[in-house]
Amino acid sequence: MERTMIEGLGDRIGETVRISGWVDVRRDQGKMVFFDFRDRSGRVQGVCLPGSSALETAKEVGKEYVVRVEGVVHKRPEKNVQEGKQNGDIELEVKSIDILSRAAGMPFDTDADLNLDTLLDYRPLTLRRPRERAIFTLQAALVQAYRNSLIRQGFMEFQAPALVGSDAEGGAEVFRVDYFNEQTANLATSPQLYKQIMTGVYERVFTIARVFRAEKSATTRHISELTQMDFEMAFIEDEQEVMFVLEEVMRDVVRDVQSKYADLFALVGTDLPLVPEAPFPILTLREAQEILGVSTDDPDLEPAHERGICEWAQREKGSDFVFITRFPTHKRSFYTYEHAAEAPHSRGFDLLFRGLEINSGAQRIHDYDVLVKRIEERGMDPKNFAFYLQAFKYGMPPHGGCSTGLERLTMKMLDLDNVKEATLFPRDMNRIDVLLHGTDSGNIKE
Amino acid sequence: MERTMIEGLGDRIGETVRISGWVDVRRDQGKMVFFDFRDRSGRVQGVCLPGSSALETAKEVGKEYVVRVEGVVHKRPEKNVQEGKQNGDIELEVKSIDILSRAAGMPFDTDADLNLDTLLDYRPLTLRRPRERAIFTLQAALVQAYRNSLIRQGFMEFQAPALVGSDAEGGAEVFRVDYFNEQTANLATSPQLYKQIMTGVYERVFTIARVFRAEKSATTRHISELTQMDFEMAFIEDEQEVMFVLEEVMRDVVRDVQSKYADLFALVGTDLPLVPEAPFPILTLREAQEILGVSTDDPDLEPAHERGICEWAQREKGSDFVFITRFPTHKRSFYTYEHAAEAPHSRGFDLLFRGLEINSGAQRIHDYDVLVKRIEERGMDPKNFAFYLQAFKYGMPPHGGCSTGLERLTMKMLDLDNVKEATLFPRDMNRIDVLLHGTDSGNIKE
Q: Could you tell me which of A89, A250, A354, B245 has the fewest CB atoms within 10 Å of its CB?
């Protein structure tokens, strides 16, 4: 008999079906055994009636056992219908159970609020909880929507390398790799230089890249390995064209998850993002500082300021998104284009979402001589950038782009407290899957 | 004036338009200057007529200069039409040229057949050649088609980590990373253990992951960082269900590139893959060895055997794809399911394509006790797999999956000689973008 997915059982009233899945709950009630069975499509209640030949096996089967079940789908009597619940109007009368895999008793209380360490120590198991399942179902949808929006807007995907040469831009924040022949390589902190190279060929490109940060930060916003969604585009007039594409992407992403996954937002207990009909609000750094009433001498916004300006945007503009522009050039990466009329301010921007910077972008320098000069001014050696600089020496169009952190976007989309909740297998100072030897979990700061 | 993409010029006869792009070719002819302009959508010929005010700038503009050009689109007289060439029936009369970026003279002969080192030394520039551009346009399409096929078949994407703990499965082939607090981490050689964990939650998952191989191999098939396209699925009866999904994926991929990119195959000079109407041929290792007339004691196929059996499949079955099954269990990874009726042979399989293994897969062990026993038999310590083993201890469904190397697939799809031609920024023993210090390019074996 073919497997029927649990979400399809409502169409099979009166029929004998086979389902496969996990035992989500088992309840004994007199001479009957009730189960909630779970597969990737949903949940259904099953019952072993007194005298059923499945009862013998049913007694053995506990929570998280993997089973193949045959049974008859019944409509529930009106009084037993559970409104608003998947399959709340049907029940599966279990005729037989095959045990595909046994399960030990779960090592934590599956219904409790778990602290972060427990959540991560038992990640393969805590992922089975509806809330955790939902987070990564939504994350997959975010990636897919982001990609589809860029493809629709004429962008081509490419694969950026994660292993980079030993003379990259970074410094202390870079992980070192023992390469061949006693050479040292680095793990990429960004696909930036490669996407610029690609822009000099394909004009509009994007990549979904693994990047690595050796920062000794233990905040709710930091992880050591992350997924960066980057795009870059050529033949722009200025950074506003990049911001326009990014805004389109974010609108597409929100529209997509809203139409397909509103139930997951409800499950996680979060509101859908507020997207204004008008364009996303844009503030210069100075304007933002004036609104907040803080010093206009600061070269950047503090985390508390990011939260403050997002509250303002939500209240005044009905938007969970707000762009900040005109950061001082010296505070941005070396390839950032200076705004000629507003120097020493740059053509860089950040996109804040629900209190956090989730994207950073800019128009980039495309002139070879200017770029070389900037590298030198920052105390770096252009020789170490020779491969990258080729693209500029031989004809590079004006271009710009930006970069979204997938985990931060997921975190804020679902209003989670810690970016690690939005990372399947987060790496940090103290953890790669399990706590590392010699680290004391009591000292982890969250 | 808005930019018009070059591919759209044929619809603008008689109009004044603006294009932006690179100078692909410049030819002086008497008092006229001819250009081929190139943007991401194609090429068009432009001409500066005698007396044109653009002529002054035109004289300055050389190959690879980035320009913004205004001009009038003319239909060519019948005798000058170049049949079968994009925009072969039109010409742009150049009215003005703005130089957006200058270009030095190219450091290699752009029309020559380049050796591999030159191709890679100047990758940002050699990518501008039609052949190289085509390879990575096609690669983007392969990834997209692969992903779409799996999504259509009910698979969910996830992000697999690239940094893994210090006690992974691998050995000599693993790159070491200096992690925090004098700990050592490794670079993942595969997302295998993570996709199995995910299968225990979401049933059908895929990931497009960066993996790393520290093998000291300098063949035409090896690179040190690669893109692996993996899927894994639960509630299978046996490995044939995995093979069926994979076959669907390959058919979707070929159908997709065939319909959209037949011209790129022509440009690279390759035939489209031969896909049989009948299912892909399946041979056991023994059957393959008997066809080849080689020893049936060998536990695997040599590269020459893989080529031989692919020639057979092409000739006898009209297929560029052929599955090989029933490899000895001890030659496969520890988690490979043994075929009870045909022990010591396994439920593993390889998919060969045009002479090369591009995919390897299997049904996996899902029973906790069997898996622990197998880990011990292989001389490894189950304690080091504690995180992974959680998934199995608490109820894991029967499952299987497989893994396709994107670069190898691209290489064989376009019949390239070396996998590095199918890798944007290949890393190997001697190269990360540029040749590494202390390596002698004369010694690179290809």
A: A89
